[in-house]
Amino acid sequence: MQQRAQLLLQQTAVSQQSRRLDAGLNTSHCTAFQSLFSLLECVQRKRLRDTLTDRERESVWELCSKRLTRMPVQYVIEEWDFRDLTLKMRPPVFIPRPETEELVSLVLEDSRLIQGESHRTDLRCLEVGCGSGAISLSLLHSIPQLRVFALDQSQTAVCLTMENANRLGLQDRLEVHLLDVIKDADVILSKCNPVDFLISNPPYLLSQDMKTLQTEILKFEDHSALDGGLDGLSVIRPILALSSKLLTPRGRVYLEVAPCHPPIIQQLIEEMMPGLLYLETRCDLTNRPRFCILQKKGEDG
Ranges for the Methyltransferase small domain (predicted)? Predict the structure, then answer.
């Protein structure tokens, strides 16, 4: 009873801090305590009828201590949900955001792509910058006829993607390569050519904006998965150049980008990449221009 009461008091304190955060009092301690609320709630729900052992109490406070260092809660609990999948998480691999779930939805809404053309029973996709595997694995889970080639410049990310694929039983339709889209274009062309669509949530933040990120991000996440160079396009440009060579006729590109990027990308396509068409810009749930959809021209133009 004493242990349960202690846990309830802890939960109350966390709940109060969460309400402070919701009210706009965004301090580091508020942020940390809000994240811990769900953790303590889960422990209470699981152990409501039992007394926590010393080891269990130590485990809870070990997790709390990690979060109070500003470690993202995804790394603290070592997993996170993306759409209808639960993925393992490990620092410093990029943590998938809600916007990227919307990026996957754009592909799944494309009936032309999902059903295939000419009654095709297979589809091939390239993901640039797979991170934890969230995009690739979500697509594989939703599209039975899909085969994915995923690449990342981080060995940790490549290993985590494969670990998640094996846990979800999706490894047979996935190839993961340790490759850099900027340096290894020829290798990518030889391994992945052709594909029906390319998808990417590349690093797109302007370098000057990196310093404005939260401590959780700056301290723990891989900066190379975030920093897109002076104009945020240092990785996006090579992706566009690669797309015109990799895609099948009328194959598509789905990109998550910064709100300032869609008109710039459209101009790049029109002026420098005659093999591609800029189809449309889509907004995210906050109504900011976030996604670019491109298409390779058909053989008849």
Answer: 121-210
